[in-house]
Write a structure and sequence with these properties.
The chain is α+β, with helices and mostly antiparallel strands. Helix content is about 30%, strand content about 20%. About 5% of the residues have low confidence.
C-alpha cells in the first residue's frame, strides 16, 4: 500500500505547525514509504526538518544539515542515473527496490520507531499486539460495557471463532437492522446523538464533534438494541 500527499498538523495554542510530505514512489521508483517535512513556528520560521519512512521510523535534524544532505544526495543520484542510462535502455524489466532501511543523517534525533511485530503476526494479518486485542472481551469487562459497544457485535464474534457462515448471516441481519433504524431516525424529530454533539472546536473554531459527557459514568440507560 502506498500513501502520498501533504499533511498539516497545527498546534492551535502556540501556532506551531508540522508540515509533512508523504512522497509517491511510482511504478519504477526505488524508495517506498518516504516521508519528509519540517516544523515551523507561528511566524512561519522553519525550526527543524523531519524525515524517515512512515512504516519504519521518523527522525528530526537541523534544517541546514538536511538541506545540505538533500543537495549532496541529489547530485549523487544524478551521477548514478547517468551511468545507468545505457543499461536501462537495454532492459524492460522493472528495477528491484532498494533496501527499506533509512539512511540516518549525522546529528539526527530519533522521534519514533515502529515496535517489533509479535511472533504470531503473520497468522493474524500482520496485526500489532494492540490491534490483535481490540475485539477481546472478558466477563469482567463485558459487565462494564454498554450493549452498543462494537466488541459485542455477533458477526465479529462469530468470525473470530472461525464460524464464517454464521458471521456472514449475522452481518446481513445487522445491516438490515441498521437500515431500518436509520429510516426511523430520519422520521423522528426527537432523536439526537447521546455522547457527542456538534459545535465549534475550542481551538480552531471550526464545526466539530464534541464530547457531551456521561459515558464514563457507566449509566447506560435507554440504549437502542442495535445488534
Amino acid at each position: 500500500m502506498e500513501q502520498y500527499g501533504n499533511v498539516e498538523i497545527t498546534n492551535h495554542k502556540t501556532g506551531d505547525k508540522c508540515l509533512l510530505n508523504f512522497k509517491p514512489c511510482g511504478l519504477f521508483g526505488k524508495e517506498f514509504h518516504v516521508v519528509e517535512g519540517y516544523i515551523q513556528d507561528k511566524s512561519k520560521k522553519k525550526l527543524c526538518a523531519l524525515y524517515g519512512k512512515w512504516t519504519e521510523c521518523l527522525y528530526s535534524v537541523d534544517l541546514a544539515i538536511f538541506v545540505a544532505y538533500q543537495k549532496k544526495d541529489k547530485k549523487n543520484t544524478e551521477e548514478k542515473n547517468s551511468k545507468q542510462v545505457s543499461a536501462s535502455e537495454e532492459s524492460d524489466e522493472m528495477p528491484v527496490p532498494e533496501s527499506q532501511s533509512v539512511f540516518v543523517i549525522p546529528g539526527s534525533v530519533l522521534l519514533w520507531r515502529i515496535a517489533p511485530q509479535p511472533p504470531n503476526s503473520a497468522q493474524m494479518y500482520n496485526f500489532t499486539s494492540f490491534a490483535m486485542v481490540l475485539n477481546e472481551v472478558d466477563k469482567e469487562m463485558e459487565s462494564m460495557l454498554p450493549k452498543t459497544d462494537c466488541r459485542l457485535r455477533p458477526d465479529i464474534r462469530a468470525m473470530e471463532n472461525g464460524e464464517m457462515d454464521q458471521a456472514s448471516e449475522e452481518k446481513k441481519q445487522l445491516e438490515e437492522k441498521q437500515r431500518v433504524a436509520c429510516k426511523n431516525r430520519s422520521e423522528s424529530e426527537d432523536w439526537k446523538t447521546r455522547w457527542f454533539h456538534q459545535g465549534p472546536n475550542p481551538y480552531s473554531g471550526a464545526q466539530d464533534w464534541l464530547y457531551s459527557g456521561s459515558y464514563w459514568d457507566r449509566n447506560y440507560f435507554n440504549l437502542p438494541d442495535i445488534y
